[in-house]
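**Backbone shape codes:**
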Amino acid sequence: MIDSAIRTVRASDGATIAFETRGEGPQTVLLLHGWGGAGTGFFWNETLSHLDLTGLQVVLADLRGHGQSEQVEGGFTTEQFAADMFAIVDAVGAASVVVVGYSMSGRWAQWMACSQPERVHGLVLIAPVPAADIPFPDELKAQWLQVARERRMETFAPWVHQFTKEALPGPVLSDYFASVTSTAEHSLGATLDMCRQQGQFIDRLGATRARTLVLAGQADPTLPPEVLRQAVVGPIPGARLVTLACGHEIPLEQPQATAALIEAFLAGLNPSA
């Protein structure tokens, strides 16, 4: 695996967004992390260890307020997050990109694909938040933020396990704990609000041209396959659904299967499309 130094790009509102690249192939794949994660951190490491990078330029992005990106107070909108990611795509010199979005990032990945369909020729949505407000009460938001604020593994471990079919391996759990508990509380809260309070754009998904694969965990308690089939697969032209024997944390629970599905999906795309 080829590692490169962390790079930064200036977003349209002046915020500094961090990313790194692996591989030097002609097909660019942008990986977007979930809540409390960071592309330049641990999140995609297990999946990438199983992914053949031949012919690929994999871009690992840190969302604003996460990882090595600037700790800003503003710009927490779906439109701005998408603009941040397109700024990275421009910085690596890609005319078009395959976007892989996990969980909350699945929402802005869908926006990227339907708002600028000529720039996204492939879309892999892993346990994605739909293009609609999700029912997520204030009390639950407060509980999630408290888990991060307490910074106690004995609290964090059972919290994560409620979203998985099996307990995560110790090293993965430790890395996850370090990532979430080091993310600013404002960023954690604001990204949750982006998923639950910023309206819907399901009616715009029909503009998506990208070939689309949706991965769902059979035991996902938050976004089960039947929800994703109706709210994500149905509205996106030609999208197809694959289910895995796991919970919501698909890239951490099933990294080898995740890599194999991404690899097969990429093999079916024309990089110049």
In short: The longest strand covers residues 16-22. Residues 7-267 form a domain with the Rossmann fold fold (CATH 3.40.50.1820). The chain has a mean pLDDT of 95.
